[in-house]
Each structure stands twice: as C-alpha cells, then as structure tokens.
Amino acid sequence: MTAPKRRFRPATELVHGGTMRSQFAETSEAMFLTQGFVYPDAEAAEARFKGEDPGFVYSRYANPTVAMFEERMCLLEGAEAARGLASGMAAVNAALMSDLKAGDHVVASRALFGSCQYIVADLLPRFGVASTLVDGTDLDAWRSAVRPETRAFFLESPSNPTLELINIAAVAEIARAAGARLVVDNVFATPLFQKPLELGAHTVVYSATKHIDGQGRCLGGVVLSDEDWIEGKLAPFLKHTGPSMSPFNAWVLLKSLETLQVRVERQAASAARIADAIASHPAVLRLYYPGRDDHPQAELARRQMTGGSTMLAVEVAGGKAGAFAVSAALEVVRISNNLGDAKSLVTHPATTTHQRLSDEERAALGIGDGLLRLSVGLEDPEDLVEDLVAALDRARPAEMRAAS
C-alpha cells in the first residue's frame, strides 16, 4: 500500500505541488501545447473513451499542463478536485449552470461583481432558473429567501467593490439545511487569507486572471469542490460546452503560483499601510478595508480571514468629479478595471465594473459616485502612500484646502 503523500505548508505546495515530469525530467513544468493525444492501437482508444484507461483524450476535456494547475490549486485550497477554465466568469457560469435546471431557484447576495449579477439575475432566469438577491450580511434574509426548489446559494466575500463581508459558515449552514449548495467567489480574499471549504462552502470559484496570475498576462478561472460533484456535474458540462483553459495559460499560472504567497502578503501589507495613511485625510469620506477596526464587519474579518486583502475602497469628496480628479492626479497608480496585479490599479466602479446597475441599485450597495476601488501592487508602499496623499491633496475642493 502506498503511503499517503506528506502535506506541506502553502509556500512549499505553491512551488512543487501537482508537478508531473516527462521522461526528460525537466525542472520547470512542461507545457503540453497539444489539442489531442495518440493511442498505441484502436483498443487503447476505445478504453480511453470508455473511461477504463485514465489517460488524456482531448485538451477540451483535460490536458496535462492544465491538470498540474488544477492539482496545485487543490493542494492550496484543500479541495478534493478542481477544473481550470478559460476565465473567472466561465468558472462562475459553469459552477452554477452545471448544477441547475429549469424550475430551480438560486439565492445570492446583492453585493456582486456586475457580470456575476448578470448571470444570477438576468441569464439564469432565461433558462427557467429563478433567482432572489438578498442583503448578504442579513442571515434572516437568506433564510426567508429559501424555497422548496432552492438548489444553490452564491456569494462574494469580501465583495466587489466595497469589501462587504458575509458570514460564510452561517450561510453554509442555512444552505445545507435547505438542501442547497453554497458557491463562494473567493477572489478578493485569495486562497491564502480565506478558506471557504473549511467554513462549510461546497464550491469555490476564482478568476485566476487576478492574484493567481498577478501580472496582467493571461485569463483563467478555476472551480474547486468535492470529487463527486466535480466529476459527476461539472466535468460533463465542461466537456460538452467547451470553456476550457489553454495549456499555455495553465503553464503561465503554474509559474505565477510559485510566487503567490510572496506577492499577496506584500500587497496586503502595503494595502494596510495605505489604508492607515489615508483614512483620516480630509478628502476621504469613507474607507473600506477588512484589516481595520473601523470596517463594518471587523470582528467577522478577524474570525473568517487571516489577512486583510490586497484591496481597499475609498469614497472621496466631490462625487464623480472628485473621484476622476484623484484618478487623474495619480502618478504611480494606473487606471484599470483589473485587480490583483503587480501594478497598483484604481477604477471608478460606478462607471466601469458596476455601470450596468441602476443608480438605485448602486446606492443600495454603497457604490457612490465618489467611490474608488484600489488594487494594491508590489511598488514601494511609501511611494504608493505619497502618490495617493498627493492626489487627494490636489483633488479636494478649494474650500476644503482653504479651511485646512
């Protein structure tokens, strides 16, 4: 009997986990940039298609480089199985669509990324799947929304862009009692700072485009869950609908995972430094950062997360004009709707990531015209602090400058 593989700490698994070496014994993971695979004879091909031989068939189904990425993510997340996909939104869509049918019902938190809300509120109902959006912080709202046909719960925590936290363990308990599966988008927390599966979630999704790549190079997504669900529900859906991850992107992401912990810990430390430095600035009306005691769910953040996130949100004086003025005055931080990058990036959610929402919907989510979302990169934190403070100084209204 083969002894179980020793479990290592995250930094070690991120460098070595899941590696499959070819006959050439390469140090870096091999990139199998191939569409298909050959068989020694027709009998072997038949066995492969029947599932009697576990080898590879076609890269739309599975690929050795993608499989290495999936295994490494499982080791990091503590999941039984995973599937890599072409993008983060492909992961969200597949995690929900593969498990639902006409007549089912989904309950989701209202604080969602714009494209996630589109899938839940617009796309699923077109296929006969009803949905209800709730205040994710209100546990009674989750309970009240449950119907006999409820089959899935979906949430982000921390949410995009205001970093609202939801009690994952409590919502998972409600979902389990209702016979529903809880899907958690964990992209803002990263697998280093929050473990949804350990908190009771059934499925975790990531946009690997964000922190997992972390250098603005390629798209990717991943869904992680128990092996029965992955093989029985998700794998057939992916096989026949085709949102497969490119082997090249999987190889890039494998290289990125080697530095994930180093990058994210540095970025989160810088984010905390920035949050403390600008929280009391006269041009800052409100700041959202899970690592601070003034966060609305600070106590939950301490229980549920082991780090404060690389992200923060800040509402500045002057509404849209003030937010645009701050963005324009920045020299180091660049304007982009991406996040988790080595470069610090700022975006104005009301006109970018959440522009499709109505004014009333954005107001309910706390997305005001003056809100900016900041993704903190790997630059020197003092340069970032100086850049942001200078931009806030230059952008605040003249009467505010005169009063100071």
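^ that was protein a. below is b, sequence first then the tokens
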Amino acid sequence: MAPRRPAAPGLGLALLSAATFGTSGTFARSLIDAGWSADAAVAARVGIAALLLAVPAAVALNGRWAALRRSLGTVGLFGLLAVAGAQVGFFNAIRYLPVGVALLLEYSGVVLVVLWMWARHGERPRRLTVAGAAVAVAGLILVLDLAGGAAIDPVGVLWGMVAAVGLAAYFVLSARMDPQLPSIALACGGMAFGAAVLVLLGVLGALPLEATFGTVRFAGHTVSWIAPVAGLSLVAAVVAYVTGIAAARLLGAALSSFVGLTEVLFAVLIAWLVLGELPSVVQGIGGTLIIAGIALVRLDQLRAAPPAPAAEVSPMAEPVAAPHA
C-alpha cells in the first residue's frame, strides 16, 4: 500500500498546471482566426517551449546523463502520446465535433487512468473514487454545456479517444518516470520529440502546417503574432508541462488526473476574463461538482493510506507500484 504523501504542494502545482493549460485555447484562437492551422500552432507551442527549456533542463540534470539515457524510451513515448498524440487528437476531433463534446472525450482519459492503474498495477478503484469520478464527469458535462443535441461524427469520436489516450499517458508517464530525471528534463525532451513528430507529419503532408506573420486580434487588441505564440510557449507549455509533471510525481497518476479536470473550469473563467464570454449558472454548478469529485478522490486516498515515517515522504518519491510498460 502506498505511503501517504503531503498533498498541499502537489495540489498547488496541479492547479497551476491546469490554469496555465487552460490559457491555451484563448492564445490559440487568436492565431487560428488569423490564418494559422491548429497543427502549426501546436508545433510552434511545443517546439519553442522545448528550446526555451533546453538550457534549464541541462542545468537541472547536473551531469545525471545516465538517468536521461535510461529514460529515453519513456521520454519518447511521452512526446509521442502525451504531447503530439493528445494535441493532434483533440484538434482533429474539433474538426468533426463540437468543442464541448471533443473536450468531454479527451477528459475521459481520467477514467482511463483509473482503469490502467487497476489493470496494470492491481489498484482497484474503491467506492469513493468511483463516486468522485462520477461526480467530476457530471460536473465536466455541465461546465462544457453540452445540451445541444449535436450530431456525433464517429471519425471525430475516434480522434477524441486518441486525445483521451494521450491525456491518460500524460498523467501515468509523469507519475512513473525515473525520479533521478528532473521534471524539467522530461518536459523538454517530451516536447522536443513531440514537435519533431508534428513537423515530420507536416512535411509528409499528413498535417497542415500553415502560419501567417502579421498582426492578430487578442483580448480585444491588435497585437503582433509573437504575443500569442509567446503565451502558448511560455505559459501554456513551459509552465503547464513542468508543473503538471511535478504534480503527478507528488500526487500520483489518479489524483493528479482528477485535479487536471479543473483545466476546463479555468478555460471557461479565462475566456470570461479575456474574451468576455460569461459563464452560465449551470457551468458554475458544474465547476462545483468537479471540485467535489476531486475532494472525494483525495478523501479516498487519505482513508486508504496509513501514515508514513518522515523518511518516506520525500517530495520526489514516486508512487509505490510496479513500473509500467
């Protein structure tokens, strides 16, 4: 049974990650409205972020290149699934589905995390976790305001499930990475690999990589295209990925994935503040349910985990479970 670890630092990092991930739609919208393809915006986001993190990642490694070599396969898998797969899956899903439906499909990855931990590590979800999942998903549906009866395209559903697998991989791989590999190194390596995959697919013609380099409209103002690209790279990638990986290591895959649901809530609030899109009362109720679901999952963990000696509560310690494939 896993030891109890301090939750406050992990929860703070997870909420910061969710909030910064939630800015991506607002930044990307200004670029897409100006003529950028969604795939080009994603490639710029993760490619520039990887470059920005290269020197800090090398400093953080502090000569521990053996840890990086041991983790190359997992870092590549993180870049393929958690970076490229999740974002390409979501942006292709919204070509066929309403954004709300696509988001709901992507965040079904939270359920996939619970099922993976059960199937791979034997961590059968207890009643409070199941109840928390049901409450959180109900809240997600309300926040996304899906009551519209839009037709569901099966191709879009398949892309949405690709995004869900990518999201689940993000939380699982982040939590199970070699503790000797700094979070910033994992983020840098994963985003570099993900950017390379996206550029390769663009060169092969599998993804449209189109960009314009003029002024764009952002938050009611005319600004250079550099401003939203910088926001996507610095805020929605560098800060979001580094803090999210660190949070998953502290909280474990299951709890960090549930806290990640607040990204949708933050996205709604940011759209309200920046774009003037006022959230409804129903969305407010949904946000409350998401928070309640997270609380239930955390309560379940506290009830199940016995107190651990101080020596076992290192912030860099991984959850006690067998390494995943």
